[in-house]
Amino acid sequence: MIPAAFDYVRAGSAAEAISLIGQHGDEAKFLAGGHSLLPLMKLRLASPSVLVDIGRVSDLNYIRDAGDHIAIGALTRHMDVETSAVLKEHVPLLAHAAGYVGDPQVRHRGTLGGTIAHADPASDLPATTLALGATYVVQGPNGTREIAATDFYQGFLESALEPDEMLTEIRVPKMGGAGWSFQKFNRRAQDWAIVGVAAWRGNGSSGVALVNMGSTPILAGSVSAALAGGASVADAAQLAAADAEPQADLNASTEYRTHLAKVLVRRALDEASH
Amino acid sequence: MAVDGVMHPMQQAFMENHGLQCGYCTPGMVMAATSLLKENPHPSEEEVRIGLEGNLCRCTGYHNIVKSVLACAAGE
Hints:
The structure holds 2 protein chains of 2 kinds. Chain A contains 12 helices and 14 strands. In chain A, a hairpin with a 2-residue loop joins strand 8 and strand 9 (158-159). The mean pLDDT of chain A is 95. In chain A, the strands form 4 sheets. Chain A has a 5-stranded antiparallel beta sheet. Chain A is 34% helix and 25% strand. By secondary structure, chain B is an all-alpha fold. In chain B, helix 1 crosses helix 4. In chain B, 54% of the residues lie in helices and 0% in strands. Chain B has helices spanning 9-16, 26-39, 45-51, 62-73. Chain B has one domain: [2Fe-2S]-binding domain (DNA polymerase, domain 1), CATH 1.10.150. Classes of the chains: A alpha+beta, B mainly alpha.
């Protein structure tokens, strides 16, 4: 539980952070809230030689109404997402799901951008923003680019971010009154989900994404396609795992995860359809 | 949290309501409880329990910890 030795530098701005990460090469990592990276370092599953601390880049901590979407700074903490009046009004699914991350201490430290950049399939908010059709804005040495959430997650803890790029903003479309649900099945309140589901439904459209059902957060496109084709919630939920490749671990076998996904997607769609 | 040797109201409430036994978890409990009351000055018992989630008391003294926080919120 003691990390390997590393150097530490603190950045005052996004531009400085990108410059610092460029100087230190592939062995450097951004440190935001630290609630995903530091546990990995303590288990020696990650041993970056340099941490570039972006935790005090305060101009990336905001939640703004940007017309058709809400723009959230990457360093906005889970607690601020959970309690944001703007998000509760326009993207209530994200505010609600943020309240399921860890416990209050974790939510006061961990950041939305951090959990997305970490790209852990077992985390709640990568899947939630995927279900919502979010776009991520990233900044690199040559400027900014936008990456759709559907293109962002590429493998276990692997994202479309280049080593010298930093996630700066998360853009989440307003839900426009769509019904929604967040289902999280775990053994203890603070644990990662064994399986989780974020879902919304409205105006003839829907979005369903799965937590911990593969090496990335999974968009359950087959479920949405079935609903769009007129299938009942019960029938659509049978396709919950059609796009997933669940792994077995100490908590659940592949078969159990598949079963859970069907049950939880059905519950989520029932709740979102009200 | 104490100023000039005078206990913070949350510390006082813990003392008066037997909110600590061995004291190991107390700093975290007092900090979390104080933060909770800043966000929600008059929480229900359930809200206190949710707000203190993640702080473990190995003496299992949760009942009196919750009682302490509620007492502090009530200004007792």
